[in-house]
Amino acid sequence: MAIELQREKLNDVLAYLNSVLLGKQEQVQLAVTCLLANGHLLIEDLPGMGKTTLSHALADAFGLDYQRCQFTSDMLPADVIGVSIFDQQQQAFTFHKGPIFSQLLLADEINRANPKTQSALLEAMEEQQVSIDGTTHTLPNPHFVIATQNPSHQSGTYPLPESQLDRFLMRIQIGYPPADAEFKLLSKTRSTNLSSSSAADLNDPKSMAILSADDLAQLQHASLQVHKSDEVIRYVMRLLAYSRTENLFPNALSPRAGVALMSAGQAFAYISGRDFVTPDDIQTVFGPVAEHRLRAGRGTMFNTDFSAQILEAVPVHD
């Protein structure tokens, strides 16, 4: 796909997502940025804010095969990754794939599952493979996990461990819609009856797709080519170094967080129509990339915006 057509189609994706999630252009742009940076996305907010709606719309727009997995307290790791069952006719174990074997897994309310089940996602999210009974199974390419979680103060939730949080390139919050968007939402007529054509669309995400998985791969490659100057790299390094100041923050930002920050900055610059990263790009993605890492394991016990503190303290130029 030519670069001009890529950008045009990408704009169509953003327009579609903004029509689905009204009044949340920034969150939509950040979610697409995460996919272009080839990262997993964590969406945290109260129930009913549009987390699942955005997740489904992303899968639809990029034509990805996806499955939704509702996480509950009694869920087992096998419910996510699959299980080997003995076939009496063949006298051998047959592996039955779980929902993780999809191009996009919507892990709904991930923090309602117990820590053992949460940890089952770790290898899949990092290595794009799972190991069961000594056998390694490769996951589809591309492979994304979009997880939603409710605030940790709500009943029935388990905090995500630091290692799990670090696998998510970005965390975003949707928040309440602005008044004009909520008016449009309430003005819509909601129908529970699906025509045969719309039902077919729900069964086949590719029929609603604006881009394909191959197009997405090309967009990811293009975003990696976005120029990052030495000045921007040094700015990122200063942000990382300040986070490591002793006793200032619950957790410091790791080198992996730095790589995630740079990749997100490149993807955001590409979506914005530029072929170079600016400090503004880094500042825009810094909160979604860094905040959940800085407070990992602490949940909502801190009301402070740590990423904003770092951005305020660290100068853009030496």
Layout: helices, strands, pairs:
Layout: H1 3-20, H2 25-36, E1 40-44, H3 51-61, E2 66-70, H4 78-81, E3 82-87, E4 92-97, E5 104-108, H5 115-127, E6 129-132, E7 135-138, E8 144-149, H6 162-165, E9 168-172, H7 179-187, H8 196-203, H9 213-224, H10 230-243, H11 255-271, H12 279-294, H13 306-313
Could you characterize the architecture of this molecule?
It is a single chain. The chain folds into 2 domains: about 25-185, P-loop containing nucleotide triphosphate hydrolases (Rossmann fold), CATH 3.40.50; about 225-318, Magnesium chelatase subunit I, C-Terminal domain (Helicase, Ruva Protein, domain 3). A hairpin with a 2-residue loop joins β6 (about 130) and β7. The two termini are about 40 Å apart. The protein is about 45% helix and about 15% strand. The model is unreliable at about 190-205 (pLDDT under 50). α1 (about 5-20) packs antiparallel against α3 (about 50-60). With about 325 residues, the protein is α/β, with parallel strands linked by helices. Strands 2-5-8-1-9 form a 5-stranded parallel beta sheet.
Write a short abstract of this structure.
The protein is α/β, with parallel strands linked by helices and 318 residues long. The chain has helices spanning 3-20, 25-36, 51-61, 78-81, 115-127, 162-165, 179-187, 196-203, 213-224, 230-243, 255-271, 279-294, 306-313; strands at residues 40-44, 66-70, 82-87, 92-97, 104-108, 129-132, 135-138, 144-149, 168-172.
